[in-house]
Model the fold of this input.
Amino acid sequence: MHELLVIVDMQNDFLTGALGTAEGQAILPAVTDLVRGWAGELVFTRDTHTPDYLNTQEGKNLPVVHCVKGTEGWQLAGELDALAKQRGCKVFDKPAFGSTELAHWAAARHAQQPFDRISLAGVCTDICVISNALLLKAALPEVPVQVYGSLCAGVSPESHTRALEAMRVCQVQVV
Done:
């Protein structure tokens, strides 16, 4: 079975930094365990901004400087950074919620060796996880896409639940 796991934005700023949440911190050990035991293909996304973030459209709507490239907050959290490097994982630095680069890459990889499933875990369920899940589903509509609901955290528990429901409606499996 050929599976892809996408770990979305498990970065310091989303766990303990500028936009950190207790829910995000709580999933880190289980996400790390998933990565440690994953036998299939594995990639990461990293929310990536520049110092002029507040002048961007996103920055004007979410005026909290975070994930500035090269900062501690931008780094993958905990052991995930070391695991990504150790395994030679591709890391997609994305300036927006979803990564079209990831979706195009997955489609190209699928053409070479078809994926039986694509799985996602990470933060924030209601922004970046849902965006990437839907981009992957659109790029590869016949590949089952699933999200580990208990290995995701949203901006709030309520918006996390709403995002999981929205993904279900779009035929993303929540496990």
